[in-house]
Amino acid sequence: MRDYYEILGVSRGCDEAALKSAFRKLAMEHHPDRNGGCEEAAGRFKEINEAYSVLSDAKKRAAYDQFGHAGVNGPQGGPGGFGGADMNDIFSEVFGDVFGDMFGGRQRRSGPSRGQDLRYDLEITLEQAYAGAEVEIVVPAAMTCESCEGSGAKPGTSPTVCGSCGGAGRVRASQGFFSIERACPRCGGSGRLVLDPCKDCHGHGQVRKQRTLQVRIPAGVDDGARIRLAGEGDAGAHGGPRGDLYLFLSVIPHELFERDGLDLLCTVPVPMTVAALGGDIEAPCLMGGENCDGNCKMTVKVPEGAQTGRTVRLKGKGMPSLRSRDRGDLVVELFVETPTKLTARQKELMRELADLCGEQQNPKSASFIGKAKRFWEDVTGG
Question: pTM, whole model, 2 decimals?
């Protein structure tokens, strides 16, 4: 009799994951259904199953490692006996995600089952994300039919037990050396037959309706946030619990603000005279009360000689945190605006100012001109 480790192509010290991976690969390769009922493949398949049934059991594997085949061929074992293992259990464990109903994985039950979860994409404004909001949404969802109370049968009648599966919802059929369990084809796995269906739900026990829900959006939510509403999904079958409703939030881009974590960024134009002399300007904000005046404006102090790109940070005036009492900052970026459409007198004053301003008033220009001159001299060799 061949060594079980050799059959599966694994080392004696392999872990459970490697053992299962090797078994899956070989079992898929040599499955009788994939080899047209070939007897050689069926024998190899049986040998692989026997090896895995022993090595996947910690106690049997220890006995096999110590005594070899004699350690597992006791009264419940024997060659080809799989050590008393239930083949349906083995395939449910290893192939539940591949074969589904065939080997017992993902079985449909005739009893109550949980309803499906639902997804709802909700757009909100930055203002709603900032302060929180109460919004109304309309969600199509499966509801228990009121006429038949979810039975699917015409009022005054009841579903009957399926005669093919005896109400189990599953039927077994022999295929080769093992049996296969499938959903009952007559009742579709429900275990019941509706002979006189309800006219409102047509025997399904559920109807799809529009539901109106009031949803509370917490302050501080960000784009991509997800909110779970327990029990607001589809109704469960046969009296099972409802599924959940998941709201996926997307924040509509704002025309004034950009969000960076908890900070709010805003670019504000500053008159050239204010930037030169210093002074106060108004900047928008999202919240009233003590943070700004009643028109959602804040006063920002512009330092003397401010340049485009300079930022003024207003502490605690940004977004609230969803999980703490922290708040971000409002970051105001200054954009120095050059005046346009000047009158003759204004132009005269600007020329006079230009004549009066020297390097001390324009240090960046003087520095740039010096660098440019050195560059030209290097290029021309002058």
Answer: 0.60
